[in-house]
Amino acid sequence: MEKEFQGKLFVFSAPSGSGKTTIVRHLLKQEKFNLEFSISATSREPRGFEKDGEDYYFISLQEFKDKIKEEAFLEWEEVYRDNFYGTLKTEVERIWAQKKHVIFDIDVVGGLRIKSKFPKQTLAVFVKPPSIDELKIRLKKRSTESEDKINMRIAKASVELATAPQFDKIIKNYDLDIALKEADELVSDFLGLDETQN
Fold first, then answer.
1. Residue 165 has what pLDDT?
2. Cα distances (angstroms) measured from residue 30 to each of 4, 39, 195, 198
3. Fewer CB within 10 Å: N-end or C-end of the chain?
């Protein structure tokens, strides 16, 4: 019987506004990496143009709590009060069934949990913003959240930055082009791809 394909897992974590989503989107476009995005589940309402099953799996708070009881999550966290995020086990299975590697754009706590469950298969990367002040500017520019929410995110960012040394690699996102190049190299190395093929 053919052994089930178990791909690599790439975790990108960072405080909100650090640019990890931009980096993840860039990596997904590189066909040679054969990556598929792990869609997180959340109990919060969709924001702006977010689509269910594309940006997140939007489920009710009760449904989320039921799934926790059923141990349906690889990792989950109550990020803000009654605001849960998590990775469903079925999501990783879905991607591996396509013989692809999984890429995550998740919270630092969730990222480290995935690393602890699949220590050898996971590359955990922390994306570091230039500074907390720069982070605040970026979050304000988004204009998707209230001043209170932004302040909550900034307070959380200080705590998250302290976890950076627990990750395998840190990308300092001071210059996006350099950060993207670094991300390419890290993924390439972890997959054991020959750089001369580029």
1. 96
2. 24, 18, 13, 11
3. N
